[in-house]
Amino acid sequence: MAKLKYLTAIALASLLASTANGEQLIIDSFESGDMSATNADGFDWGLNNRTSVVTADGVVYANGTKDIATPSGRDWSTKEGLGEHHLRFYYRAGEPMTEQRFDLGRHYKDIWIGYWIRVPTNFEHGSLNNKFLSVWPQKYDRDGTVTWQTRPNGSGGANLVFQDGGVTSGEANSTPFISVPSDRGRWMHVVARVKAASGPEARDGIIQFYRRWEGSTSYELIHEKTSADTWDDESVEQGISQGYLMGWANDPYDVTTEWFIDEFSIYNSSPIDDFLKTSSIGNRPNPPSLELVN
User: Residue 110's domain spans which residues?
Assistant: First the structure.
């Protein structure tokens, strides 16, 4: 039976035109309120694991359509200019797991992942490491996996580290990332790049991570490694095919803490100039919605 899926025009265009070189491959602004949409390559959001699509008024999707009002005292406001919906990550006090997995449907040898993310309004980092972003070719947590994590900075904030080879490899480049209380409630745009190595012993892969705070006119290059071992001996195809956003908090938050992500996008070449051009002309109008029959 045909299934109706409601997507924004911008999401539809990018989901269908998923193989153009040097262009946007995937974008999800969550305005459809439906995470079951796919593209020709088979992109798939995994099950919602304490994540949900929300508006300022409540939950609209979590493994299916929902209608749950925003709890009293919580701020679920969306970023100005990005529509009414975004993806919420719910860390209940004392509980460590909140994660959103995705499958790109194919392998990308050079991938750029961009999204907006809001620092929790009550952010306070614990004493251990928390997952932030991880991507891999075939199997998680081995050669070819690249993982970013936050570590405490000693003042309630966080530094960002990365691991070339998954969480079992050593951490590198601990860099200031979030300060408290000054960064609480702020939106940042992050761009993570992973390029596959050219061979099993080549060690010429590339790992980069950029960040721009809302209102800033430039990106900061937080991490860069041009001799990365981003090769997976067990993968038939090299390049990133899967990943997750956020994930396990090794020192769970003492109080309920919520992150928000919006306008998740995938590119196969640097989108940074385009992002800066977009920011320089102000917020874009919300795209019209249309109906797609599959």
Answer: 19-293
Q: What is the CATH number of the domain that holds 208?
A: 2.60.120.200
Answer whether 88's CB lies under 8 Å from 66's CB.
no
Which secondary-structure segment (H or E) carries 274? helix 272-280
Q: Are 212 and 189 in contact (CB under 8 A)?
A: yes
- pLDDT one-digit tens code per residue, 206-225: 999 999 999 999 999 999 99
Listing DSSP states for 65-84 in one string gives: EEEEEPPTT---PPPTTS-S
Residue 271 belongs to a domain: yes
First to last CA, the chain: 9
Which residue's structure tokens are 């991570």? 209
How many domains are contained in the chain? Answer: 1
- Whether residue 242 contacts residue 103, with contact meaning beta carbons closer than 8 Å, is answered with yes
Tokens of 48: 């919602």
| Residues 149-199: tens digit of each pLDDT | 999 999 999 999 999 998 778 999 999 999 999 999 999 999 999 999 999
Single-letter residue type at 187:
W
State how far the Cα of 175 lies from the Cα of 7, in Å rounded to an integer: 38
pLDDT of 293 above 90 = no
Contact 214, 78 (CB under 8 A): no
Count Cβ atoms below 10 Å from residue 10 Cβ, excluding itself: 19
- Give a yes or no: residue 7 inside a domain: no
**Longest Cα pair distance anywhere in the chain, in angstroms?**
56
Instruction: Answer yes or no: are the C-beta atoms of 132 and 160 closer than 8 Å.
Output: yes
- Residues 262, 115: Cα–Cα separation, whole Å: 6
